[in-house]
Amino acid sequence: MTGDFSIQPNQEQAVDFVWRQIYGATTEPPAIGWRQADCGKPVKWFDGYYEEHTGFVDDYECKGGFFQAYPRQINLVKKDRLFRTALAHELYHAYLNDTTGDADQDHKGISWLHQSDPSQGDVDGIVETARKHLIEAGY
Ligand SMILES: [Zn+2]
Q1: Which of 46, 49, 73, 93 lies in disulfide reach of 31, CB 3.0 to 4.6 Å?
Q2: Helix or strand or coil: residue 66?
Q3: How far is the CA of 106 from the centre of ligand 1 (A)?
Q4: How far is the CA of 103 from the centre of ligand 1 (A)?
Q5: Dist CA 131 CA 65 (whole Å)
Q6: Which of 61, 55, 60 has the alpha carbon at shortest distance from 34?
Q7: How many whole angstroms from 112 Cα to the centroid of ligand 1?
Q8: How many angstroms separate the alpha carbon of residue 129 from the centre of ligand 1?
Q9: Each residue of 49-99: pLDDT tens digit?
């Protein structure tokens, strides 16, 4: 297990919202290990929030998050707000793994589509829908 497993503000409500209400999961959600950002390009968000780094180094790569089945957990960059993290994305890998045995780490399914990617059509998949709900809910 890697990361800081302390519960962040709104974490339980946000996880329950995405995991049970949007994805319809019936299993327990994975543990979340929080990591400090130390790599990646700076980003300025729509609300003006500025991030110096967006990822953490793991296995020689800069990642915003990942899911692993054993031990079952997700790792995410610790940020001021949950909607800025890959929470919805990594929970969906866990959900797929629980329900199909394949976490779809290569994002081949239609669930990962989002409107802002012109090559992907014009409909949001469930992951992007969940992410937008996190923003709307103020998490
Ligand atoms: Zn992914």
Answers
A1: 73
A2: strand
A3: 7
A4: 9
A5: 14
A6: 55
A7: 9
A8: 15
A9: 999 999 999 999 999 999 999 999 999 999 999 999 999 999 999 999 999
